[in-house]
């Protein structure tokens, strides 16, 4: 697609301009230099007025002290001739075939931001990014991704805060490693105590029985001694009792009573133990809650990354105005840097490339006040323009050799006489020239 540029321009009696004729460099940077209040900016304003229409008309277009109305004559690279002259500065656009046209014909290839680049450069970072996204047709899709990204980010932030609170709460809970896993039942301890007491009671009965048998033996001995006549009968009973005694002694020989002291102590300490058990259970629950929110946080982090990856893939596949130019977190990013960290030449390159992308037919851009840039930056920017096939007409408070032409008292230096030959702009931007 052919991009249209400015071949020639003639300006008379506009603001501070008396009479200026310029042939801008076709590809590259044309620097209009001069001291302050000599008419440099008037050249830029006049071009914008001629091509951009009434929205760019100066509030007081006629040069102070002149009785002759403004006269503008611009020849475009596509052959169109644009004129504003006469008392009302009426617009006249003539195509190569001699047919007339108006502002609508100019609007096909004249990009408004190309006439007012500071409007773009002074916009907020978000506005610049939105302009770029709308140009490449991704504004709505990226907006949807960013909305989803913000929602997930906020949800993850809240989840992370709760997870931190849960972790802190779990960490502050007391824990007793010596406590049992489950609460102790008092009735169970009492049941065990009663079983032991019952067993001990049986043992005591056996001891009592053995003692009774021992007394019987003694009594029978006395009976044997006293009742010799009943010796046989008593002897039989004695032998029987001896046998029973022997058996009884064997039964009680290995008996050992169990102590209930530990159970009694446990019954007394049961509430204290259960306090520890409940504390341990509370800590386990707190740690479980904390881990649950940690898992949710990690899941949301993965979702957030997925959305960001989709947005990055979308932008990487887009037809962007410059390599390494993208949009991240609502900001223009060029070579990994946000706008405020870009160099002066990088900002100009990004702005010019975006303006060209807005309307590829527009092959020129107007810039004012490039004096804040050093010669090296101008040289770098000029070389980039040449490589991109773009035309920039800019002003600079300087009379140095970096200037293509010098404006002095409303004239191009060397054109003060009406008979002086037209001065073409410098076209060479070789390294080391300045």
From TrEMBL:
<dbReference type="Pfam" id="PF13476">
    <property type="entry name" value="AAA_23"/>
</dbReference>
<dbReference type="InterPro" id="IPR038729">
    <property type="entry name" value="Rad50/SbcC_AAA"/>
</dbReference>
<dbReference type="InterPro" id="IPR027417">
    <property type="entry name" value="P-loop_NTPase"/>
</dbReference>
<feature type="region of interest" description="Disordered">
    <location>
        <begin position="414"/>
        <end position="434"/>
    </location>
</feature>
<keyword id="KW-0175">Coiled coil</keyword>
<feature type="domain" description="Rad50/SbcC-type AAA">
    <location>
        <begin position="8"/>
        <end position="305"/>
    </location>
</feature>
<protein>
    <submittedName>
        <fullName>AAA family ATPase</fullName>
    </submittedName>
</protein>
<feature type="coiled-coil region">
    <location>
        <begin position="203"/>
        <end position="317"/>
    </location>
</feature>
């Amino acid at each position: 697609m052919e991009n249209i540029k400015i071949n020639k321009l003639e300006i008379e009696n506009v603001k501070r301009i008396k009479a200026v004729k310029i042939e801008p460099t076709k590809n590259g940077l044309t620097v209009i230099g001069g001291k302050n209040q000599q008419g440099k900016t008037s050249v830029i304003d006049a071009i914008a007025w001629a091509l951009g229409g009434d929205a760019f008309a100066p509030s007081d277009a006629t040069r102070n002290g002149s009785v002759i109305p403004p006269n503008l004559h611009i020849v475009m690279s596509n052959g169109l001739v644009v004129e504003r002259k006469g008392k009302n500065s009426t617009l006249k656009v003539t195509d190569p075939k001699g047919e007339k046209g108006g502002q609508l014909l100019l609007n096909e290839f004249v990009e408004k931001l190309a006439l007012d680049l500071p409007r773009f450069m002074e916009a907020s970072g978000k506005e610049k990014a939105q302009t770029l996204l709308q140009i490449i047709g991704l504004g709505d899709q990226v907006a949807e991704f960013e909305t989803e990204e913000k929602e997930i980010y906020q949800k993850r932030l809240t989840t992370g805060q709760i997870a931190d609170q849960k972790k802190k709460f779990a960490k502050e809970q007391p824990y007793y490693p010596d406590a049992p896993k489950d609460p102790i039942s008092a009735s169970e301890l009492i049941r065990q105590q009663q079983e032991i007491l019952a067993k001990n009671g049986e043992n005591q009965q056996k001891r009592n029985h053995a003692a009774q048998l021992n007394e019987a033996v003694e009594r029978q001995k006395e009976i044997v001694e006293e009742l010799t006549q009943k010796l046989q009968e008593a002897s039989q009973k004695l032998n029987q009792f001896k046998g029973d005694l022997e058996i009884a002694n064997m039964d009680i020989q290995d008996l050992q009573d169990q102590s209930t002291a530990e159970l009694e102590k446990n019954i007394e300490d049961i509430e204290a133990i259960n306090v520890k058990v409940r504390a341990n259970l509370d800590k386990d629950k707190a740690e479980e809650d904390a881990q649950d929110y940690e898992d949710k946080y990690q899941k949301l982090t993965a979702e957030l990354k997925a959305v960001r990856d989709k947005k990055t893939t979308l932008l990487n596949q887009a037809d962007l105005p410059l390599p390494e130019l993208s949009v991240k977190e609502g900001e223009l990013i060029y070579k990994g840097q946000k706008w405020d960290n870009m160099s002066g030449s990088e900002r100009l390159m990004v702005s010019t490339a975006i303006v060209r992308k807005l309307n590829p037919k527009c092959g020129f851009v107007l810039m004012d006040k490039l004096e804040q840039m050093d010669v090296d930056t101008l040289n770098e920017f000029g070389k980039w323009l040449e490589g991109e096939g773009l035309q920039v007409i800019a002003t600079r408070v300087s009379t140095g050799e970096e200037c293509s032409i010098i404006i002095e008292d409303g004239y191009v230096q060397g054109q003060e006489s009406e008979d002086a030959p037209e001065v073409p702009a410098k076209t060479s931007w070789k390294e080391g020239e300045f």
